């Protein structure tokens, strides 16, 4: 018999401890990260207990009317599980979850799967249980990642831009000036995509202060001027470029290429994956070929982010 309890502050220590030890752990799921924007989301996170009252799974989630999302404020979500998790137990958990959410006024669950590269140990019991429960695949985003232990060679054009950045004297260093970086990021996003960054500089600085071993900023400078940069989210063996920005001057000088090459070949050469994030738009229906080609030029190849809808009625 599966017991379900809604998250409450008294469970914070237990939540964070279980989330940190999960086989698919990510610092996203620590309460200190999840709650930095708690004013924007109605938390609907759940804790799952087995018949011996042992905590066996967590589900980070938010409520959006009658829809529950895992989680509306995170890139991906899904169940966090440990070594006790089995396929049969997950079937019980998903069945109990459907009943619980329906009893509490939910009509559907939008489930964002954690990409497999982020799991330290196989953890896809949830996909099978979703399938068995009649969930439908409603979205598939395409991300690009480099397998660092045996990475592919750069495309000729990308190697040329890296060499250009070195020739132009682009200096790469770690920075803590998130305001300056986000100003550049927003300038680029507004010019080319008519949008802006999800995070503010102040929010990134706050999160970096809370998670100094996970969130870092690297910049490329030309004669001391900010020309390019990337905000890096580190999680175990996976390194993710949460943001990348290149000024017009930096673009001409090969600044961002120089920064990325430095991270791949020097800073994070001992990790497993270098994840550039998605290159899809319109809920996966449009592939930005220019963007994905840039990432593939560094040797990255496809990893998918799947979204499921589980009807509760």
Describe the overall structure:
It is a single chain. This protein has two domains: 3-134, Aminopeptidase (3-Layer(aba) Sandwich); 145-303, 3-Layer(aba) Sandwich (Aminopeptidase). 33% of the residues lie in helices and 30% in strands. It contains ten helices and 17 strands. The strands form three sheets. It has an eleven-stranded mixed beta sheet with strand order 2-5-6-8-17-9-14-13-12-11-10, with helices on both faces. It has a four-stranded antiparallel beta sheet with strand order 1-3-4-7, with helices on both faces. Strand 12 (225-235) and strand 13 form a beta hairpin. Helix 3 packs across helix 4 (125-132). The protein is elongated, with a radius of gyration of 21 Å. The model has no long low-confidence stretch (mean pLDDT 96).
Number of helices: 10
Helicity range: 25-40%
* Low-pLDDT segments: none
The CATH topology of the largest domain comes to Aminopeptidase
* Helix/strand class: alpha+beta
% residues in beta strands: 25-35%
What is the CATH class designation of the largest domain?
Alpha Beta
Shape: elongated
- Give the N-terminus to C-terminus distance in angstroms: 21 Å
**How do the strands line up in the largest sheet?**
2-5-6-8-17-9-14-13-12-11-10
Provide the number of structural domains: 2
- The CATH architecture of the largest domain comes to 3-Layer(aba) Sandwich
Biggest beta sheet summary: 11 strands, mixed
> Element order, helices and strands?
EHHEEEEEEHEHEHEHHEEEHHEEEHE
Q: Give the strand tally.
A: 17
Q: Rg from C-alpha positions?
A: 21 Å
Instruction: Quote the average pLDDT.
Output: 96
CATH homology-level superfamily of the largest domain: Gcn5-related N-acetyltransferase (GNAT)
């Amino acid at each position: 018999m599966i017991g379900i309890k809604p998250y409450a502050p008294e469970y914070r220590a237990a939540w964070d401890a279980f989330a940190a030890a999960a086989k698919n752990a990510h610092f996203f799921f620590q309460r200190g990260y999840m709650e930095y924007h708690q004013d924007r989301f109605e938390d609907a996170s759940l804790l799952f207990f087995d018949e011996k009252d042992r905590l066996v799974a967590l589900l980070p989630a938010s409520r959006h009317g009658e829809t529950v999302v895992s989680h509306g404020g995170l890139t991906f979500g899904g169940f966090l599980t440990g070594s006790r998790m089995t396929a049969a137990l997950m079937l019980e958990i998903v069945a109990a979850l459907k009943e619980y959410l329906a009893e509490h006024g939910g009509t559907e669950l939008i489930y964002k799967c954690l990409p497999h590269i982020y799991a330290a140990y196989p953890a896809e019991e949830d996909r099978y249980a979703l399938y068995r429960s009649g969930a439908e695949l409603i979205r598939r985003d395409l991300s690009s990642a480099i397998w660092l232990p045996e990475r592919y060679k750069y495309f000729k054009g990308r190697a040329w831009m890296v060499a250009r950045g070195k020739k132009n004297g682009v200096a790469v260093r770690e920075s803590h000036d998130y305001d300056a970086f986000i100003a550049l990021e927003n300038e680029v996003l507004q010019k080319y995509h008519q949008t802006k960054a999800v995070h503010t500089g102040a929010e990134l600085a706050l999160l970096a202060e809370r998670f100094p071993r996970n969130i870092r900023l690297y910049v490329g400078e030309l004669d001391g001027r900010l020309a390019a940069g990337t905000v890096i989210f580190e999680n175990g063996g996976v390194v993710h470029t949460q943001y990348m920005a290149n000024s017009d001057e930096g673009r001409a000088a090969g600044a961002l290429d120089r920064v990325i090459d430095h991270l791949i070949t020097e800073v994070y050469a001992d990790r497993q994956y270098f994840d550039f994030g998605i290159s899809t738009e319109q809920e996966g229906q449009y592939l930005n070929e220019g963007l994905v080609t840039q990432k593939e030029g560094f040797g990255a190849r496809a990893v998918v982010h799947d979204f499921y809808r589980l009807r509760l009625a």
